[in-house]
Structures are given as structure tokens and as C-alpha cells.
Specification:
- The structure is a single chain.
- The protein has 756 residues and is of the alpha/beta class.
- It has three domains: 368 residues, Glycosidases (TIM Barrel, Alpha-Beta Barrel); 100 residues, Chitobiase/beta-hexosaminidase domain 2-like (Chitobiase, domain 2, 2-Layer Sandwich), CATH 3.30.379.10; 255 residues, Up-down Bundle (Four Helix Bundle (Hemerythrin (Met), subunit A)), CATH 1.20.120.
- It has 27 helices and 17 strands.
- Helix 7 crosses helix 12, helix 13 runs parallel beside helix 15 and helix 22 runs antiparallel to helix 27.
- Bound molecules: 2-acetamido-2-deoxy-beta-D-glucopyranose (6 copies).
- One 2-acetamido-2-deoxy-beta-D-glucopyranose (NAG) binds next to loops.
- Its EC number is 3.2.1.50.
Amino acid sequence: MTRCCHFLAITLLALGIPEAISSWTSLAHLRPRIDDGVQTRAVTELLRRLLGERASDFVVSVDGAQGWAEGDLDSYELSSTKDDKVSVTGNTGVAAANGVYSYLKEFCGCHVSWSGDQLRVPRPLPRIPEVIKVSSPNRFRYYQNVCTQSYSTVWWDWPRWEREIDWMALNGINLPLAFTGQEAIWQEVYLSLGLNQSDIDAFFTGPAFLAWGRMGNLHSWGGPLPQSWHVKQASLQKKILDRMRSLGMIPVLPAFAGHVPAAITKLFPQANVTQLGPWSHFDCNYSCSYLLDPRDPLFLNIGKLFLKQQLQKFGTDHIYSADTFNEMIPASSDPVYLSAVSKAVFSSMTAVDPQAVWLMQGWLFVHQPDFWKPPQIKALVLGVPLGRMIVLDLFAESTPIYISTKSFYGQPFIWCMLHNFGGNTGLFGTVESINQGPFDALHFPNSTMVGTGLAPEGIEQNAVLYELMSELAWRKEPVNLLKWVSAYATRRYASSSENVAAAWRLLFQSIYNCTIPFYRNHNRSPLVRRPSLRMDTNIWYNRSHLYEAWRLLYLEAKSLASSSETFRHDLVDVTREALQLLVSDYYQEITTYFANHQLTELMTAGGVLLYDILPELDNLLSSEGHFLLGVWLERARAMALEEKEADLYEFNARNQITLWGPSGNILDYANKEWGGLVMDYYTQRWGLFVSTLIECIDQGVPFKEEAFNRAVFQVEKAFVASRRKYPVEPVGDTYEIASRIFVKYYPQAVWNLRKA
Ligand SMILES: *[C@@H]1O[C@H](CO)[C@@H](O)[C@H](O)[C@H]1NC(C)=O
Ligand SMILES: *[C@@H]1O[C@H](CO)[C@@H](O)[C@H](O)[C@H]1NC(C)=O
Ligand SMILES: *[C@@H]1O[C@H](CO)[C@@H](O)[C@H](O)[C@H]1NC(C)=O
Ligand SMILES: *[C@@H]1O[C@H](CO)[C@@H](O)[C@H](O)[C@H]1NC(C)=O
Ligand SMILES: *[C@@H]1O[C@H](CO)[C@@H](O)[C@H](O)[C@H]1NC(C)=O
Ligand SMILES: *[C@@H]1O[C@H](CO)[C@@H](O)[C@H](O)[C@H]1NC(C)=O
């Protein structure tokens, strides 16, 4: 019996349910349904995109029968052929692709990441001494958070998606969220129910806020969605799904969670629709959405209409995501109510797809622990038959829920690393926890864990963590972190320099080793926050390690910056992090001078910050293609059909990373250190702050925070309203700029450390 069926059998027996009646509660039906030949071709084409003509050195074959015999677990086999090729066989396309990537890493020293590739593949291919067989202990390797769609992928075209799906396959991901284009279907459903276009326009948010519209947190903010959006997104979704399925992935589609347009209340006055309270710092102009009681007959109707249309347009792999209570308190904590709700949500899925499995984000349990006590959690998850809901233990590296709920009371769960909030730039990681956590969860008594996952709110940052976590999904035990990261550095830059390996070990021992419980990767640096006299400058690691890593990378910069894109990226990233610390030092000096009325000193420190550090940071970021505001904005504009739409999309793009709402409702949550943004947004704010402090000393008046906030809001609003263009290609020489910064500021950084 397979491992995943084994636990269910145990639980079912414990509940007195014979195994036979639940043959497909084992989740065995969640598997690629496309033929082996198609998957083989898809992997071969992936390798051609990745390796060009060297792809022909690999002989790929997908044999579905092979892996499944070993117990539903994905597996691959690697061997060398007589003619110096490498043969890879996987039971799915994903398994085969992951096999190739593990060979490329371990035998060829290669590397593929969001921030660049290192693909100098030796010729001929290094031989594999004896056949390698690997199987993943994790039935599912999940990817994405419902927010990733808004923070990272919202403006992607097909080539960018194609690259991401390749990355997923190489990293062994087989359960990706596929949320693109769902508004096209929702629109049809609501029109068919009798709503008109203005009803719908008052419902959908703009593109950059769809994640929160879908979860009922927001409505209409950043909207309305142009018709061309629906057309383009629906056609993008078809390509995405085709590609995912051809590689043997099992895409997760959306289902109805109960959030409806306000007009439903007029059209169906009998339906039990409640208006929810305001979400986060929004008022009811854009929040206080409407929730249809899942027990109402209309719920089943809408849920069915949606799934039927979706099935017709996009097909299905029998797994659906729905979050009814994300960051929102249910109407009642009565377990009877909660279990009736989840039963009803699930019934609307099975009414269309009898084999439906509900994938639910477990974020609500982390976010509102005062509401979600054991009886409430138990009621919600057990409202669905055992084995028909998979819970994402979303922030398991910090706040695992599976322990206190004894494996979600028998429902299968996936151990997820959330890692990133708001898609912020900033080095961060909890390496010890991700290295150990999934194995602890697997060995937990009567564990119902069926996989691991990556659930970041935003991607394209800290690539190292995602590579590590993906690799752990295929391992039977934790890695030696320092050894692992040394090899990572060597591969990433194609450099055997001891300095770069030492730099990465230091990073893993400090900034990537956050052990503070509940600490979120949210860049809280004063640099990216609205200035005030009460800013948080705390950090979780020993700064001297970061500065030493900075120095070690700098020592190699002359030779590696020209040869390695990934090195240039990391040189920028580590220098950026060091400058961010230096900004905190300057901030603290400035506030001290202010308190002591030292005008000259304050002006000097403010001058260095405003006229050197921040502009130099902007120069540095602008010199590297992965840190450009221009790319984010131009991608947004490129999604539009006409100028008016382009302006709306640019407004969305600018607002999300700054004010996040009309009035700074979730101010700077999605902050980014990007070339262009540092100069035209953060530096402008700091300029106003420093000049306000100077004026206060000059006129002998105290700093008034509220007045300052009103004034600085005008600066922030002006940035969002601006349509200034920014380069979409890097400007300047990274090595030159990084060296200038190092020479100017490293001694001072180290000096500040001694002083502290
Ligand atoms: C949609 O219906 C509402 C009333 O429910 C009406 O006020 C509005 O003008 C209609 N909009 C359109 C575009 O017909
Ligand atoms: C809601 O919108 C109205 C009309 O635009 C505006 O007058 C009002 O101030 C807004 N309410 C809040 C609380 O911002
Ligand atoms: C309507 O729905 C709310 C929230 O789901 C629930 O508390 C209430 O009891 C329902 N009312 C009726 C009449 O079913
Ligand atoms: C595991 O499940 C078995 C069978 O239901 C039960 O007897 C045992 O007590 C459980 N162990 C723990 C630690 O919960
Ligand atoms: C991370 O920190 C913990 C606690 O201080 C320590 O035990 C562990 O060895 C550190 N890990 C690394 C990779 O340095
Ligand atoms: C930080 O690291 C440096 C260098 O290893 C060490 O000398 C210093 O004591 C550490 N500081 C703290 C607070 O642990």
C-alpha cells in the first residue's frame, strides 16, 4: 500500500469506515492524465529552450507505469549511455525534468534561477558511474500563494510564464496554482444570472489587486477591469494549463468561495447574503464585500455555474482552491455552522466534479488564532469527507498548525514554506527550520502530510531558499546546510573561489538563519518605510557577518562581475542589504542630532543620506536588470490594448508597491528596492523628513508627525500619479558602481559596528 493511502486507511479504520468504500479518497486520481509520449516531448522541448543544441545529449523518456508501481511516488532514473549521453526516465514529465536538473547541478555544476542561469555544460557530459534512482517522499510539491498572482505574475506575458513553468518542472513542482483568467468566467456567470456590466465593474478590482478581490477582502479598487483583460487572460490561462499538463503537472483551479457582487442582494433579495466588515485598513468604499451563505441554495447554483463554465473552457484535474474566510471572521464560531459551511462549499464542487478535492489555504488559522480554536478548525476541516480536502499548512516554517491539530484531524496537509510577504526585496530566510521542518512533519505520529510546498506572496527574490526547499522535497533527510550552500555558490557563479563559498556560508549563518518565531520576511528597514521619529531598526542577525560576506564578494567582483550574471545580481543584492543597514545608522544619527538640536551635524548626516547613499543605491540597482522599476511598469502597460488601459495598469502597478490603496491603507507593504523607485519615491520622502527636521530645529518647534504624514502623503500620491518613464534595460557598470560604494562605505559600516 502506498504511503499516502496508508495513513488514510489508518484514519478511516479508526473511524470505522471500511477502506473499500473510499477507493479514490486516496488521492490516487490526482495524477497526470496526459500520455507519456506528450510528456516526453514536453520535457525534450523544455531542454531545448534551456540548453539549445546540448539538449540532444539527453535521452528523455516518461514511463507512467514505472513510478506508480513504487507507490504513487514520483521517481526518476539517471544513467549514462554508451555514446556519452545521459538517459533520464521519469514516471512523469516533472520527475524527468527534475532528474535532469539534479544531474545538471551535481555533475555539471549548473544552476537555473529567477536571477539568471549558469549553464556551462561540460562536453562531453560527465559520466554517471552507476544508475541513480531517486523517488520523492512527497506525493505533491505545491507552488504559489493566492497572492503571488498579484505581487509577481500579474503583468506576465506568455514567454515569462513559459520560463516559470520550465523552472517549476526543473524544480520538481507538480501541484501549481493556476488562477489566471478566472474573472473572464466569473463575468459570464454573473451576466447569465442577470447582473449588468456596471454591477460587475463595481465588483472586480484592478489587475494588481485581484488576489484580494477573489478572497472577498476588496472590491473595485484599481478597477474596472477592461474587457480586453478578460480576453487576454483567458487565452493566457489556456496556454499555461496546456503547458503545465503536458509536463505532467496537476494544476489547481479556483472554485466558488461565496464572495459575490453587491448587486446579488438586489437580484436575489431572498438569498442570505451578509455584508462583511472592513478588511485591513480599508473602509467600505472598497471593502466590506458580500458573502453568500454557503448553505443557501443560490450558493450551489453559482458554484455549479462557475465550475461548469470553467470545466468547459479549461478542463480540470479535480483539485480546486477556495478560501471563504481568508483574514475574515466568520459570522459564527459555532462548530455546527462552520462544518455546514465547508460541507456546502465542497458540495458545490462535487455537484459538477464528483472527484473534486478541495485545496484550502490554512492561512486563516495562522492569522486569526483567537477565533480558530481546535473545535472551530476541526469543524471546518471535517465538514468535508476525509481525504477530500488538502490543507496547506501555509506558514509551517514559522507557525505550523499540523501539530496542535494532530495533522488537521486526519485531513491530508502540505507543509509549506511561506517565506516572503509582499514580494519585498531583502535577504531573508529560516534555513534551519525549512531544513528540518518537513521531515519532522513527515515523522509526526500518524502524520497525514502528503507533500511540501512553496507559498510565497511574491517571488523573484532570495532564489537560494526556493532551490533549497525544492531540493529538500526530493530528499529523505536534511542536508548539511553549510556544505550545501558552499556548493550552491560554486554552481551559481561557476567559480571555485573559496571567498564566494565563505561569503554564502556567512549569509546562511546569519541573515538566512532567522530563528525568531513568527518573524515574517517583511522588509522593515526604515529605508522603505515612511519616515518618522519612531522607526523600527531591529534586525535578527549579526551585522558583521553580512559586512564580511560583502567584503568577500567584493574581493571576487573584478573577475566574476564580468563573467557571471548571477554574481552581478548577488553583488547588487548584498551591497543593497549593506546600504540598507547603513541607512538605519544614518537614521539613528539624524534622530539623535535632532533630539540634541545639533543642526549642523543633522544637515551633514542628512546630506550624505540624500545626496550620496540613496542616489548611489539607485545607481547600483539601476545597473542590474532584476531591480528595475521600469520593467514592472512597462510590463503593466504592455498588457493594455489602448492608452487609457495602459494608464490604469500603470496606476495599479505604482499604487500596489507604494500606497497600497487610495490613502496609504497598507502603506509600503509591497515595498521594493528598485532602481527608479529608490530615487523617486523613498528618497523624496527622506528629503521631506530631513528638511522638516531642519525647519523644526530652526524655528524651535517640535516635529509633528501628523502634519508630516499629511505632507508626505502628497509626495507619495504624486509618485503614484506620475507617468514618468524609467529604463527597462540596465544602465551603468555594476562592478564600477559597487566598487565605488564599497570603498566609500565599507569602512564606515564596520566602524559603526565597533561603535555600537
Ligand atoms: C445596471 O443595473 C442597475 C440597477 O440594478 C442600474 O442602476 C444601472 O444603470 C445598470 N447599468 C447598466 C450599464 O445597464
Ligand atoms: C468614500 O467615497 C466617497 C465618494 O468618493 C468619499 O466622499 C468618502 O470620503 C469615502 N469614504 C471614506 C471613508 O474615505
Ligand atoms: C445567514 O447567514 C449568516 C452568515 O452566514 C448566518 O449567521 C445566518 O444565520 C443566516 N441566516 C439565515 C436565516 O439562514
Ligand atoms: C495513531 O493512530 C493509531 C490508530 O488510530 C492510534 O491507536 C494511536 O494512538 C495514534 N497515535 C498518536 C500518537 O496519535
Ligand atoms: C542558526 O542559528 C541556530 C540558533 O542560534 C544555530 O543553532 C544554528 O547552528 C544556526 N545555523 C546555521 C546554519 O548557522
Ligand atoms: C558578531 O560576529 C562577530 C564576528 O564573528 C563577533 O566578534 C561578535 O561577537 C558577534 N556579535 C554578537 C552580538 O554576537
